Amino acid sequence: MARPICFWLRYFAFLMFIGPIVSYALPRPPRPPQSHQDPSYLKFVSNATEFPSEDYYDYIIVGGGTAGCPLAATLSHSYKVLVLERGGVPHGETNLMSQEGFLATLTEADTYDSPAQPFTSEDGVQNARGRVLGGSSAINAGFYSRADDEFYKKSGVNWDLRVVNQSYEWVERAIVFRPELKTWQSAVRDGLLEAGVDPYNGFSLDHSVGTKIGGSTFDSTGKRYSAADLLNYAKPFNIKVAVYANVERILLASSSSYMGSRLSAIGVVYRDHTGRCHHAIVREHGEVILSAGAIGSPQLLLLSGIGPRPYLSSWGIPVAHHLPFVGQFLFDNPRSGVSIVAPIPLEHSLIQVVGITESGAYIEAASNVIPFVSPARSIFIWTPSSPLYLTVATLMEKIIGPLSSGSLRLASTDVRVNPIVRFNYFSNPVDLKRCVNGTRKIGDILRSRSMEDFKVRNWFGGHDFRFVGPALPVDQADNHLMEDFCRRTVSTIWHYHGGCVVGKVVDGDLRVFGIDALRIVDGSTFGVSPGTNPQATLLMLGRYVGLKIIGERTRYR
Prior knowledge:
This protein is α/β, with parallel strands linked by helices. The chain has helices spanning about 1-25, 70-75, 95, 100-105, 150-155, 160-175, 185-195, 295-305, 310-315, 430-445, 480-490, 535-555; strands at about 45, 55-60, 80-85, 115-120, 125-130, 145, 200-205, 210-215, 215, 240-245, 245-255, 265-270, 275-290, 305, 320, 330, 335-340, 355, 360-370, 390-400, 405-410, 420, 455, 465, 490, 495-500, 515, 520. Keywords: Disulfide bond, FAD, Flavoprotein, Membrane, Signal, Transmembrane, Transmembrane helix.
């Protein structure tokens, strides 16, 4: 995402606008002070190298991410829990722990070690996965908004809405804050209202049509809180978290010696970073729970021999259980939008305001401080002794759903290698129509009075926006032009989901069909994205399923 921005900024500045742009540049704002107090969860987090070759637990959770951490914290109050996280700990990592580090975290990524693991879908869109304790909640934009009512009806999960609300509230008390709007976010709020995205719902965590300020997992100093911080509410002597632990497969066994008896998950095999193999085994009545996300959970099922029989056989993977829809019905909500160089200093802001339209699109915004680098060895451009920074303001739309679906397949039998993913953006024409609706709404906002301060004087005495990258088509009434803009500028907002969808791979209680003691608790089970942003729902889901499991086992004792 940052590379094209930097390219356009340099190109833009070098050709035409060096003088004016440098006059808009500002020194980098000081970093907010960070707390040096260590979170209490670090007391039960250890490198996987320190774990025994074999150990026993009531619940083994694969993935210490957005759903996995609240799930583990909840279960630990009644049972012995192991969390296996393939990445490290976010605490102490400056980029991860601050709003300012958001772009750097996504761009300074590598194949095997970085907190954000990059991948590019076969659609050609760059994307990223969380690879750190806290998962994607430790690398995202921090926006928090509950699911829409339709999600609970369509998701296929057996919801108890009383427990759903209790679970949301538990998360919100711990890590959710009310953001303070500054220049850009305030202007976008006002622009949305001028563009007819009403009513104004003020600050709200609920999903309602109109314009609102949502919650944030960044506090007033810009410090990030993630799912990892929910581990502070675990019972310490009942939980262990292994970091840098790559789970390679689920261990399965027949429940009896009779032919055709059901398989049961009995544990997992994982490796530490030295390559040493470990076995974690579940006790009687325990479970293996996958919370590895929409990429990791279907990948691990396939590597464990759970998936379409012909496909697994083509890889030489012994087929444990034929489940044809593993890796299918994979979705990603396409994002389109515009970015402008602001003529006035702007704060660094991630998503805080959202416009929930009735035409199938959500409108969000961000402003980022980006370093200006003059072309090397230029004799025409003054090179300052200290770095200068530009503020780039972005308006973006994300469609609901989506209806277009893709799939995932293995690229390797090495679990560390990203699978091959295709999302098939806009293969369903309804998605394209929704994108056109959303981009037209962005045009309405740009024409609002609230945006006047972000225009610059042009050569002819008028005022225009100074775009970074493609601008919206001039004739926004032309469907073909708007559809072409959506296709040309499509990118991700990192809300991909599916691959182990309810009704196809898991039942309404998230149990894998045909395998005992195996559940999936993450976004891979969603066939539709919840509300404007999935983070709140995934955090809630972890707490919710933990409470439901404890309740079930209490009833059947």
